[in-house]
Specification:
The protein is an alpha/beta fold and about 375 residues long. Helices cover about 40% and strands about 15% of the residues. The protein has two domains: about 120 residues, Aspartate Aminotransferase, domain 1 (Alpha-Beta Complex), CATH 3.90.1150; about 240 residues, Aspartate Aminotransferase, domain 2, CATH 3.40.640.10. It is built from 13 helices and 14 strands. Helix 2 runs parallel beside helix 10, helix 5 runs parallel beside helix 6 and helix 11 packs parallel to helix 13. The longest helix has 21 residues.
């Protein structure tokens, strides 16, 4: 297993600091792994690589002995869509917990596959209301699954998926969790928290290259998908599971991204989730303290924030385009807020191989811009 080392400064690899929530700045060892040898995906070498990645992914995702993971070539959205399209039965329905853009995305995916959904629209940046969830499930026995986002990246909010799972299981329902922006850094463990289907990405907090996603669930859950009508061909989880259990991908995978993902998984396992969470939390705390010292207003109260992203109001003296242009010139890539927050908010990620020195340099550059505006 690769030994744990401090994160590398972005300057060491000659690129800007990516403060967007994925893709992230990679460790040099992950980036170097992308240049692995050309390989046929039907050869034993790839079968061994796929088996190792599935096992390590399950460990990082908090799965237990009964769990496994299915690897997909695609963005994190592909894993969320695969879980929804595959897990909800033909006569089932999905309760969508919507308190941001990615919660709303559950409803859009369900509609695309003809899945009946009840959208519990709470409002962006509004904490989940467990009483409303309880009442919605009690009122509609046909809602067989609950869809919830762990880290709602549109606002930076961290949702309590364990509480959702307890309510859902009390009513005999399953939970599908979008953990794309949280797995690897935030505490989440399907075996302990009752998450039935966890969708994640190789990128973001796992610090792999973009292009791979995964779904973690019990082997029994994957096997129970057999015989169900297939809503999708490429994203059918049972198709991928049965192929990967034989050591084969169902379709041609992104092999360079697989090399990089194994390197990233080794680093994540060596560092440990608690240590990575602490590293991200320290960076986020440093960033947030500096932003508030500059007089900027953060979107959420501290208890609701994930460690990987901070949403904040735009300063009165500078619009997003000016901030983006001038910070990009200073070596930092920032991120616009989405939809209803886009007019007056922006976002800053602390995911990836970022350092305290990077945060100091960013805050100094931002202070210069604000003074000049």
């Amino acid at each position: 297993m690769t030994a744990s080392v401090p994160p590398l400064p972005a300057a060491a690899v000659g690129q800007p600091v990516l403060m967007n929530p994925g893709p992230v700045v990679l460790d040099d060892r992950v980036r170097a792994a992308l240049a692995g040898p050309d390989l046929c995906h039907r050869e034993p070498e790839f079968s061994d690589l796929l088996t190792r990645i599935r096992h390590k992914t399950t460990l990082v995702a908090g799965g237990g002995p009964a769990h496994t993971s299915v690897l997909l070539t695609g963005s994190g959205t592909s894993a969320v869509e695969a879980a929804i399209a595959s897990a909800v039965p033909a006569d089932g329905g999905l309760l969508v917990l919507d308190n941001g853009h990615y919660g709303e995305r559950f409803a859009h995916i369900a509609a695309a596959h003809g899945i009946r959904a009840h959208r519990l629209e709470l409002g962006w940046g509004t904490p989940l209301d467990t009483d409303l969830i309880e009442r919605a499930l009690a009122a509609d026995p046909g809602l067989t699954h609950v869809g919830v986002v762990h880290h709602e990246t549109s606002t930076g909010m961290l949702n309590d998926v364990a509480a959702v799972a307890r309510i859902a299981h009390a009513h005999g329902r399953e939970v599908i969790v979008d953990a794309v922006s949280s797995v690897g850094a935030e505490r989440i463990a399907p075996a302990e928290d009752g998450v039935d289907w966890l969708a994640g990405s190789a990128n973001k907090c796992l610090e792999g290259a973009p292009g791979l996603a995964f779904v973690t669930a019990t082997r029994a859950a994957f096997e129970a998908l057999a015989g169900r009508p297939r809503r999708t061909y490429y994203l059918d989880l049972h198709r991928h599971y049965t192929a990967q259990e034989k050591g084969l991908p169902a379709f041609t995978p992104g092999i360079p991204a697989c090399y990089a993902f194994e390197a990233a998984l080794d680093l994540a396992l060596a560092e440990g989730r608690e240590a990575r969470h602490a590293r991200y939390a320290a960076l986020a705390g440093q960033l947030r303290a500096g932003l508030e010292a500059l007089g900027l207003e953060l979107l959420l109260p501290p208890a609701q924030r994930a460690v990987g992203l901070t949403a904040l109001r735009l300063p009165a003296s500078a619009g997003y385009e000016e901030l983006h242009r001038r910070l990009r010139a200073a070596g930092f890539v920032i991120y616009r807020a989405q939809e209803r927050l886009a007019a007056d908010h922006w976002r800053l990620s602390t995911m990836g191989r970022m350092t305290s020195a990077d945060i100091d340099r960013f805050l100094a550059a931002l202070a210069d811009i604000l003074r000049d505006s």
